[in-house]
Amino acid sequence: MLLSTYLNILGACLGFISAMFFAIGALGMHPQNILKISTSYWDANQHWADSIADQRADYIVGALLLILSFSSQLAANLVPSDAAPSFLQPLGYAIAEIIAVVSFLLICSVLLRAAVAKTTRQKVQQLQKEKLAAEDLVAKNRAV
């Protein structure tokens, strides 16, 4: 398999995975989630914050994969068209390598998405607690 063909196929696969991460936010909005988010809460709406944190994580991972996809496709156009490295020569090896790279990147993407969502939720919860504590302090000072 030619290197340019390999990079084009890899770039297309990464672009597809990127599109899936971008779509997850919209596809994951079930009626129950919309109800939780749209319901009024006193002080802070944790469901809304968690939903936005999850969407943020999906968009970050999707954007990174999209950049990697475009970089791979650009590289495919920049390498000599007759370049055929030995590790891509048997077609079966090239297909196996594409599957391995895409699987590895998919696993890394899911783990990165989970980490970003978790840290974002924790940071938002911390900021909400700090804001509520500050509001309570102001309310106590007014009462005194």
Task: Annotate the secondary structure layout.
Elements: H1 3-27, H2 31-38, H3 46-78, H4 91-143
Helix pairs in contact: 1-3, 1-4, 2-3, 3-4
Report a brief summary of the structure.
The chain is mostly helical. It has helices at residues 3-27, 31-38, 46-78, 91-143.
Descriptive report:
With 144 residues, the chain is mainly α. The protein has one domain (3-143). It is 83% helix and 0% strand. The chain has four helices and no strands. It has helices spanning 3-27, 31-38, 46-78, 91-143. Helix 1 (3-27) runs parallel beside helix 4, helix 2 crosses helix 3 and helix 3 packs antiparallel against helix 4 (91-143). The chain is elongated and about 80 Å long. The N and C termini lie far apart (79 Å).
Number of domains: 1
What is the element string, with H for helices and E for strands?
HHHH
Distance between the termini: 79 Å
Query: What does the largest sheet look like?
Result: none
The averaged pLDDT comes out at 81
Low-confidence stretches: none
Return Rg in Å.
23 Å
How many β strands by DSSP?
Answer: 0
Keywords:
single chain, 144 residues, mainly alpha, 0% strand
